């Protein structure tokens, strides 16, 4: 019996029609199952829960039982479309205009998932049991959300069930201008800090009877903002700290406020860790607070910096990109965080998807030609990884 060869654009449309705004699935994973099961992929629907968070549905699908296991990771959840009146067409009714497919999730990252499924269908149909290993997909439903009941718990499930990943390609939209101009081989870490300085409220005409927290907050912010954490590395830009808000909440002109709060974010390279930067922030807090306990900090690290050093996996993907697109991709660690920050603890991981220019925007879209080309790239990656050429 011949196996189906899936069209990446048709599958992209089917996925976009599912309004899978985090944490809802709305049938997106079932669409993937319907396309993967006829290819002899074993599909596991994994629903995880945690108190205080919504349940999330996820999918792990695998063709083959032996190693090595090359995994494609991605997410079917999308960000909300916002004001529907600002869209040229319904964000969940895919529409092709002038060679581009429009709809929420087109760039980030339903079309990339469709491209990989299409590539896998070609390779499985062509080589079948001759593939010396396994092809798998790790698809989550909460990457755009808190990322608690998705990839992290899926990876725990894989380990508990002796499912080993040997290499992974994440389909996040990595390219800046044209398909193939950038592959991610790592990501910076991200730390959020909220600083609250407590003082004593009082009348501005009697400052000795009050304690203004604003100067101490400004001193704290100037100290950390002036810090040169490093000069960057071969693969990472310098660590940067950005102050994102300063809030006093004081509508009165003659009142010294009782508290002042600020938030900041640090994007850091692999010369630092969340722990080392937390210690630095605590040192600054202690210096400015002195013997008092008047400065509170709330620190959260959403991901550590990591790097998959250039090597076999990045070379394989880069060669596939060049063969299909003619581009020589930059190996980069720029941008925000992705689920690769969890996968890197299990196997080498790189990221390659579509152009990211319209991700999360009104009229999000992807080039039809790019969708087909990405499927060709993924096919070459699969063929090359398993030595099938």
Report what the structure shows.
This protein is α+β, with helices and mostly antiparallel strands and 389 residues long. The chain folds into two domains: 8-187 and 305-385, Aminopeptidase (3-Layer(aba) Sandwich), CATH 3.40.630; 189-303, Alpha-Beta Plaits (2-Layer Sandwich). The protein has helices at residues 8-16, 28-36, 106-127, 151-160, 214-226, 274-289, 312-325, 340-343, 368-385, and strands at residues 42-50, 53-63, 69-75, 95-97, 100-102, 134-140, 167-170, 182-184, 186-187, 189-198, 202-203, 240-247, 255-256, 259-268, 295-303, 306-307, 330-332, 349-351, 365-367. The strands form six sheets. It has a six-stranded mixed β-sheet with strand order 1-2-6-3-7-18, sandwiched between helices. It has a four-stranded antiparallel β-sheet with strand order 12-14-10-15, covered by helices on one side.
Summarize the structure.
The chain is α+β, with helices and mostly antiparallel strands. Helix content is 30%, strand content 26%.
Overall geometry:
elongated
Question: What series of H and E elements makes up the topology?
Answer: HHEEEEEHEHEEEEEHEEEHEEHEHEEH
Query: And the CATH topology of the largest domain?
Result: Aminopeptidase
End-to-end CA span: 23 Å
Unreliable segments of 5+ consecutive residues: none
Number of domains: 2
CATH superfamily of the largest domain: Zn peptidases
Structural classification: alpha+beta
Q: Count the DSSP helices.
A: 9
The largest sheet has its strands arranged as 1-2-6-3-7-18
CATH top level of the largest domain is: Alpha Beta
The major sheet is characterized as: 6 strands, mixed
